[in-house]
Write a structure and sequence with these properties.
By secondary structure, this protein is mostly helical. The chain is 72% helix and 0% strand. Helix 1 crosses helix 6, helix 6 runs antiparallel to helix 7 and helix 7 packs across helix 10.
Length: 235
């Protein structure tokens, strides 16, 4: 087990709170998009809410137990969540289901952009600081940096077009009705979730690096990049 120093505990707390809030927003977006599209399943379950409790009650292992344990043991955060939906609604309205699936990653990218804009404004107007001695970012900068990187990761990972990730449903947006129905027959008629996750985890490490680099170069002040890395990825 990792040596739990006070600085690492504080940093782990920031990552977990960011994960809890971002995941709650992600699932609430799924639920809201489904309700707008005519499926009240998640709405009845209380998932159209930024209150994390209904989402935790649905996935206590993925939103509380496993993320905290993974932070303590490995200093990395792993977790998951889900929102219920009506499979019959998905079959009747595959394009609406695709929009529902894409609403989650879109929310993560929105949170990422909010964090990036706030970091730029804070740096421009000197609201944010970097410690000249340690070269590390201050607390507000660290929090915003965690939100930026975490939501970039969550949004990108969930867009991978493999089950059970959102991208596997989102691609129906580019299919005709008949093709989408045949695709759903294949997607829901087989147990590809574990295989898809293995492919996603191993493939993501090659995909995310260039995306992360491009996003940082385009959205973050260059002077903050190294201090942020030193601070929020501290080991």
């Amino acid at each position: 087990m990792a040596d739990l120093q006070p600085e690492l505990i504080a940093l782990g707390f920031i990552w977990y709170v960011a994960f809890l809030f971002s995941t709650t927003c992600h699932e609430a977006a799924h639920a809201l998009a489904a309700k707008i599209g005519g499926d009240d399943t998640a709405f009845v379950g209380g998932q159209v809410s930024l209150n994390p409790v209904p989402h935790i009650q649905r996935e206590p292992w993925g939103m509380v137990v496993f993320p905290i344990l993974s932070l303590i043991v490995t200093r990395n955060l792993f977790g998951w969540a889900s929102a219920p939906y009506d499979p019959l609604w998905e079959r009747r309205h595959p394009r609406r289901a695709a929009w529902m699936a894409l609403a989650g990653p879109a929310t993560n990218y929105t949170l990422m952009l909010i964090a990036a804009v706030t970091l730029r404004l804070g740096w421009t107007y000197h609201w944010l600081r970097v410690d000249e001695t340690s070269g590390r970012a201050d607390f507000p900068t660290s929090v915003l940096g965690v939100f930026f990187f975490l939501n970039l990761l969550l949004g990108t990972f969930n867009l991978l077009p493999v089950p059970p990730l959102d991208g596997s449903t989102g691609i129906m947006l580019f299919m005709g009705e008949n093709r989408a129905q045949r695709y759903l027959d294949w997607l829901r008629g087989n147990s590809y979730a574990m295989v898809g996750l293995v492919v996603a985890v191993f493939g993501f490490q090659y995909i995310f690096g260039p995306i992360e680099g491009a996003a940082m170069d385009a959205l973050l002040p260059r002077q903050l990049l190294l201090p942020l890395f030193r601070t929020i990825f501290r080991h």
